[in-house]
Amino acid sequence: QPAAMADLYTKDRWHAAPVYPRPHLCPGDTISGPALIVETTGTNVVEPGWCASITQHNHLILEKRSLAAATPFISPSASPRSRRGLQDLSYPDPVFLEIFNHLFRAIAEEMGITLRNTSVSVNIKERLDFSCAIFDQQGQLVANAPHIPVHLGSMSESVCSLIAKTQGAFSPGEVYVANNPFDGGTHLPDITVITPVFVEANTGADPLFYVASRGHHADIGGITPGSMPPHSRTIAEEGILLDNLPLVRQGEFLEQDLRSHLGQGPYPARNIDQNIADLRAQVAANARGVQELVALVQRYGLQTVQAYMQHVQDNAEESVRRAIDRLQDGQFVYPMDEGCEIRLQITIDRQQRTAHIDFTGTSPQQANNLNAPRAICKAVVLYVFRTLVEDDIPLNAGCLKPLHLTLPEGCLLNPIYPAAVVAGNVETSQALANALYGALGVMAAAQGTMNNFTFGNQTHQYYETICGGSGAGPDFAGTDAVQTHMTNSHLTDPEVLEWRFPVILEEFAIRPHSGGPGRFCGGNGVLRRLRFREAMTAAILSGHRRIPPFGLAGGSPGWVGENRLKRIDGTTEYLGSRAEVDLQPGDVFEIQTPGGGGYGSE
What we know:
This protein has helices spanning 94-118, 122-125, 149-152, 155-166, 255-262, 272-300, 302-325, 374-387, 422-440, 494-500, and strands at residues 4-10, 13-21, 30-32, 35-39, 42-46, 50-54, 60-64, 130-135, 141-144, 175-178, 190-197, 209-216, 245-249, 252-253, 330-335, 341-349, 354-358, 403-406, 452-456, 461-464, 503-510, 526-532, 536-541, 562-566, 572-575, 578-583, 588-592. By secondary structure, the protein is an alpha+beta fold.
């Protein structure tokens, strides 16, 4: 019963509000506004149309309720949380849900910090081209750090592939390595290290969780230094395949086995020492994740941790369903520079609160390397729909549950082994993100490419993705010179780049007016010019050099990009979307990246 009544002025009139001392309220109690809840340090005002409930952990939650039901009362049975025991985990406590959201994310972030601090390559230490995540007992993504979207949405496929291959028969002290694009990977330079997590060592029981880290290695073999060949036609030409190989067994790092594997075949890795150093860093990052997960279980108990791993996925699922409720059906055709196209149809089922994304009609598997494995397509769809959610939720497997994909086998987005795929991860993924946003009418095209630039010889190997313009939307302009959508890596600091490699960064600047005009303008691309001090082989793998990034709702497209080679003898070679060239000392490679599309008529 209320301790007293008080006059409360709200909603433009006076109300008779019951007053409840906070210590008198018990888990399961629900109070409808108007009401006052008095604590020793303050007073909580429950407005009309709102209710306050006490959770099983004695937390006070305020929730909006229909004004028609707003009658002052206290009801121990009105809430689904009511009168449950403190150890009942079938329904999430809202406060603990948020706590575990952040705890799981923090573990992945700690893994990323460890990986950055212990890695050797510029690619991982400086460019931060890596991702870390934790997974439940079934291999489903639970939480991740805000790293590379194309990694995060696809890593679960790698973990599930490993579980299926081993039939879940793991032992403490084991770690595995994989990069197979046809089994959950993205492309061969992205190497995933997976560690099963045992809470009690030496028990022989099944793993309770998994942690994984994926890093882009500067070279994994293939026909060009940097393992990003513009003209590869089979997966074998792109580097060494690692298909769920043991990396650590009984706590011992299997270095000789790894060296042997990386050095085999017609196109072996060029800098095995660096590969091994970065793989050791990934093992260390995973060990940090294991340590933190074990500590979490010790603090909260195994049942609680496992329950909230499911709750955060369920919460993400419901958040995506709420986003789907606001969407309309849409379709889009997205042409690419090489003549292929992505076709998609999005159909919203209002009753089931689901979205069906149908890629029927997309171009067939290509003879080039634009093919994007199924895991990449799932990662892009997951990313796009996650960005439509207004709530602060982790990217996890729950986001995918309301999304149903139709991917014809043998098409550009679901190729068959041994198709070349190196550009599918970096170029087709960007095109697919733009196409999905276009179909949903959410925003104009971003630059639609990662502008992948590699150079190297037998001594040096380097890879970078170059920023450009982002697309404009209904109430915002695009941003200049940013990494967009499926990539989130840094560019190497000029001082580090020139210290570690025989190059001079002559210019790096915003490319004026390259963003598409509109009521809201697209972001501008950039100009990047590098002079080489040694003989090198360089490769550019890019998009939107022929077809401009689209505008939306009357907005104009952004400018296309350009790739040029200025020889030391004064001649200039104009390159297409993809090219491989031999460079001599003094040659300059210039890359101009596309701008984003504009939105709305001016």
